[in-house]
Amino acid sequence: MTTTTMVLIVLAVIVLWVIFAYNNLITLTNRAKEAWSDINVQLKRRYDLIPNLVETVKGYAAHEAAAFENVTRARAAAMGVSNATPAAQAAAENQLSGTLKTLFAVSEAYPELKANQNFLALQQELGDTEDKIQASRRFYNTTVMALNTAEQSFPGNLIASSFHFAPMDLFELPDAAAAEPVKVQF
Q1: What is the DSSP letter of 178?
Q2: pLDDT tens for residues 154-175?
Q3: Most buried one in 9, 57, 72, 181, CB count within 10 A?
Q4: Of 99, 113, 106, 124, which is closest to residue 60 (Cα–Cα)?
Q5: In 10 A of CB 7, how many CB atoms?
Q6: How confident is residue 62, by pLDDT bands cut at 50, 70 and 90?
Q7: For the purposes of burial, counting CB atoms within 10 Å of the CB of 81, is it exposed (0-12), middle (13-18) or buried (19 or more)?
Q8: Share of the chain above pLDDT 70, in %
Q9: Domains recognised in the chain with CATH numbers
Q10: What is the pTM assigned to this prediction?
Q11: Which pLDDT score is estimated for 171?
């Protein structure tokens, strides 16, 4: 083999490696964007369920107006940051989750509400949606972690910096209190 052939083979291997590494980063970036979109789909579903749930509970607990106003305000705030960073959206979503916990605590005081079929169906749908949101967040964080690892590991970091790939933010709980279960006491 001549020197020219060896050089061409080495260059071809390098070019193929760059193409593979670049395509891998693009794939991971697109998966992360898809995962973020999945989170937004589930949040939209949650936003659509909340007014129905609030109206159902209102019929039984008219004097608990502050709880309803807080849920409505938190829902509006969460919807207002739907195109924000994961950290900003996580904070708004955690506030909404806290107000929903308050709404369910109010419902505990009304046995006839807990037996209402509409309320039970809405509560089950909201619980299912919360599970889907949690699964979507886990998938997003796993994908972002894989992307960030690929961007920061050698030799992928050479390609990532050359083509200006930036690390993405994880979707995290801003404080430990948001992760704790609600204690309902009467």
Answers
A1: G
A2: 989 999 999 999 999 988 766 5
A3: 57
A4: 113
A5: 10
A6: low
A7: middle
A8: 80
A9: 11-179 (1.20.1440.20)
A10: 0.68
A11: 84
